[in-house]
Batch of 2 targets.
Target 1
Amino acid sequence: MDKIDQLEKEIEAIKERNKKVEIDKAWEGSFTRKVLIVAFTYIIIGTYLMAINVDRPWINAIVPAIGFTLSTLTMPFFKNIWVSLKK
């Protein structure tokens, strides 16, 4: 019985790990994550531009925020290309 109990515990541990992995995958592709990336990037860059006295920091923060976001969000596309080339 000890061996069966051990196997059951291992299976449960694997199931729990799989749940966590699935949640992490869902988060990576979620709309919420994408919006947060845009918002935080914009706020951080805008704050930095204000600190260094750039004219119209919040307008000027739009371009780098969008650029960073696009580069981040297009990574899965380029990853797929890279993976297909490695096969």
Target 2
Amino acid sequence: MKEHYKEEYFKSNNYTDYLQREERYFRMVSEIDHSLSKIGLINKDSKILDYGCAVGFLLSGLRSFGYKNCVGYDLSEWASEQARLRGHTLLDSVRNEEFDLCFSLDVFEHMKDGCIRDLLSGSSIDKLIVRIPCSEEQEPDKFFLKISRRDATHINCKTKKSWVNFFRDWGYTKFFRLNMNTIYDSEGCFCCLMMK
């Protein structure tokens, strides 16, 4: 799958041009900073991972809000190089690493269950924020959103209930659906903060 995520992927497919989305991520971080720090779920010293960070827009936003311990990981060599050019630290592997919070936005639909299990069993992640396109209960093998159906790299399709059960198996016991302006749970997208 790694070969699919070259520059062309980020400039076509479901993206008009991914590089035009930076402002959206800054708005997202503003909401995250306001919401999660206010209730004590993160602070400026929290160790944060952006798993599937692409070119590092979320990392840039976090850094601009004073979060010092932020790292990224992305499978795409092209996107990783773009993130490094922006001055971000990217890990070659997250195995045996510990994180206070991990973001994985629009990533798990690209991964087989075994790869997600490797991430969750090979590292320590206390809190996980995900955004994952999902299916309806009535059609559990078909993405609800047309845009998700059009992407051939979207290979993992589950209902929200199935995603909750999947993460529960890996020790997450508290699930909070997100309802922000920039990250929100909808009929076709599972957006959740999970905690162990």
